[in-house]
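Our preliminary data section would be incomplete without showing what the modeling component actually yields. Below, a chain of 393 amino acids is followed by its predicted structure, encoded as tokens that our downstream tools consume directly.
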Amino acid sequence: MDRQQADILTRQGVDALRNGDAMQARALFGAIADTPPPGSPPPWFLLAQACQALGDLAGQDHALARLLADEPRHLGGLLLMAGCKAAQGDSRAASSFYTTALAVADHAGPAQVPPGLVPLLQQAQHYLAQAKDEYAAFLTSTLAGQGITAASVSPRVDMALDLLLGRRQLYVQEPTSFYFPGLPQRQFYEAQEFDWAEEFEAAASAMRAELEDLLDRQPGDFAPYVQTRPDRPAAANHLRDDPSWGAHYLWEQGMVVADHAALAPVTMRALQRPPIPVITDRSPMALYSLLRPGTHIKPHNGMLNTRLICHLPLITNPDCAIRVGNETRQWQQGKLLIFDDSIEHEAWNRGQATRIILLFEIWRPEISLDERAALTAIFEAITAYGGLPRDQG
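Predicted structure:
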């Protein structure tokens, strides 16, 4: 068969398909596919369409497999193969082909997708959503039959299943300045994991009284948390120089703010207990952090993954919350909230009253004393060179 003959048979096959004679079309396309002329690709896609019209799933599957072997990202072929697998009852294979087809279409862009394939892409999205629900129901039912539920095992198992089923997004440590390897990817830590926490929380009422006394004496004594520095580019933060997110430091850049600390003796004594880093010109760091009603701190990452950030809520309301990674928690009056700020996080106050917390940092518990000493030397050397920027929230 030469190319001219193949072209004639192809046109006849297309006419047959348009006229509803899928049997004739399959025969014509099959003849070309069996003996294709040199340099001319076999009409696998057209043959698959003819087989689909006849309900010939095996023939459709074979033709599409041959097509995709040569053109793995053929959008129409991927969509037809997904539909074929779905008709054969292989939902996992169908989901895989549909997922790949959607990725190919997204990469190509709307202008490059043939209009005739748009309904199939919409069908793909609907199928994947339904398949995900069915898969989740199957796993939940099967595991429950073995006594495995979120409440009966552990939060980590629950998280793993949520990630598997796409119910949560995966977030990892992405510090903006310094990464220390080998640390667990944990979003929140629980206060009971730290031997100093119970005593610290017990002083919360007295610490709140000190804060309220400060607010009575100096109600406007909070500077913007993120401030423009004349010797550095302006921080890319929508709350830069905005007092809606305010700070009142007790320890700043490793130095006691004497007049502030003098008004908070209970708080300063309590801060002697946690394992706060001591790094020249960097830490200790402790402050009252204020968030006014309607303020939203947008998603961002902290500078380091060698520390945890501790919040002790002193004045809060139920409409305030913080999201770290894929978990959101409310601040609870007088209860420590401890998290890894190198993981993407955001916070908001949707209430009618200002939220104020005591904020400080501690060493991560997984870092040994020798490693802490080495990291302290590293950070001090970086700071001495002028290379570690000021923390911008």
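The chain has 13 helices and twelve strands. The two ends are 72 Å apart (CA to CA). Preliminary results of this kind motivate Aim 1 of the renewal.
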